Amino acid sequence: MIYTCTLNPAIDYFLQVDHFKAGVLNHVKTDRKMPGGKGINVSRVLKHLGQTSRCLGFIGGFTGAFIKEKLAEEGIEADFVLVNGDTRINVKLKSDSETEINGVAPEITDEQLNALFAKLDRLTADDFLVLSGSVPATLPVTVYKDMIHHVRKSGARVIADTSGEAFRETVEARPFLVKPNHHELGEYFGVGIESFEDVKKYGLVLVKKGIDHVIVSMGGKGAIYIDRDHVLYAPPAKGILKNSVGAGDSMIGGFLSEFVTSGDFQKSFQKGAASGSATAFSVDLCTKEEVEKLFPQIKIDTI
Ligand SMILES: Nc1ncnc2c1ncn2[C@@H]1O[C@H](COP(=O)(O)OP(=O)(O)OP(=O)(O)O)[C@@H](O)[C@H]1O
Ligand SMILES: O=P(O)(O)OC[C@@]1(O)O[C@H](CO)[C@@H](O)[C@@H]1O
């Protein structure tokens, strides 16, 4: 089973405004509310690509009820810990440029955190656990590291996608795979990542720290995969950018959808890259048909 964990889910509220101006009244042209948060996006992409997963994390209030309802409609299993406050709303404003305003997580108590850890006790060596997104302010920043240590004995493989201090802590616990984007990689090392050579150099440092697979995504410039023996480049597919929100989550979903069946990391990377691009070219997260269409375009190269 693939478990995704979203500590800080959200309703993503997408707004389209013609020529948005700060400081004045703007009228919205179209809007859309979607269940969001990085792990939830991974689960939705997995579902689109024909794989089952179960969503873990914290959810609460009317916003949480909306997310649970939408996931149920899509046939995605959810096993969230309920919290008292409202799950946040994240604003995704599309105008001449894209602006994101991410909300604040509701409070999470020690009992609720323990309840989440208890759910991890059922993981086995056949399972994957995807830890994605920001850590709510009421949780320790070490929470992902603690979760990885908690499941280590089970043999479950952990994939982590977070940023800032939480990413720093997560790396210490040596997950199976991490997927920083190039900004997050640069932030971790306190450097600007300017070239593919930089990505390769710093990605290899993460591998040497004991992380088996490192994927560094670079938005419209594609992605680089690094393990002990390989450094591979996946170019971006060609298309018109419609929405980059969730492209990174789609990359993880696409990678895993292949990896759980074939265990072929190169094909999984190719599928991940096709999924990232397919989401960038769609209004919602990628569909199977879109991914299959782009897959042959992604020619993986050794660099
Ligand atoms: N404009 C684009 N054109 C083609 N492919 C893209 C584009 N943007 C993203 N992709 C694909 O999706 C992958 C992931 O995108 P990105 O690096 O933006 O992830 P991210 O920063 O983690 O995004 P998010 O946090 O919104 O999920 C890229 O490596 C690339 O393969
Ligand atoms: O605030 P976080 O947890 O870092 O990111 C949350 C978020 O921006 O990431 C997803 C896209 O990757 C969106 O669905 C969601 O709104």
Automatic annotation (TrEMBL):
E.C. number: 2.7.1.144
A Pfam family the protein falls into: PfkB
Pathway field: Carbohydrate metabolism; D-tagatose 6-phosphate degradation; D-glyceraldehyde 3-phosphate and glycerone phosphate from D-tagatose 6-phosphate: step 1/2
Top EC class, one word: transferase
InterPro entries: 1-PFruKinase (IPR022463), Carboh/pur_kinase_PfkB_CS (IPR002173), PfkB_dom (IPR011611), Ribokinase-like (IPR029056), Tagatose/fructose_Pkinase (IPR017583)
GO molecular function (one): 1-phosphofructokinase activity
Catalytic activity: D-tagatofuranose 6-phosphate + ATP = D-tagatofuranose 1,6-bisphosphate + ADP + H(+); beta-D-fructose 1-phosphate + ATP = beta-D-fructose 1,6-bisphosphate + ADP + H(+)
CDD domains for this protein: FruK_PfkB_like
Carbohydrate kinase PfkB domain boundaries: 11-283
SUPFAM superfamilies the UniProt entry points to: Ribokinase-like
Role played: Catalyzes the ATP-dependent phosphorylation of fructose-l-phosphate to fructose-l,6-bisphosphate.
Protein name (record): Tagatose-6-phosphate kinase
Organism per entry: Sporolactobacillus mangiferae
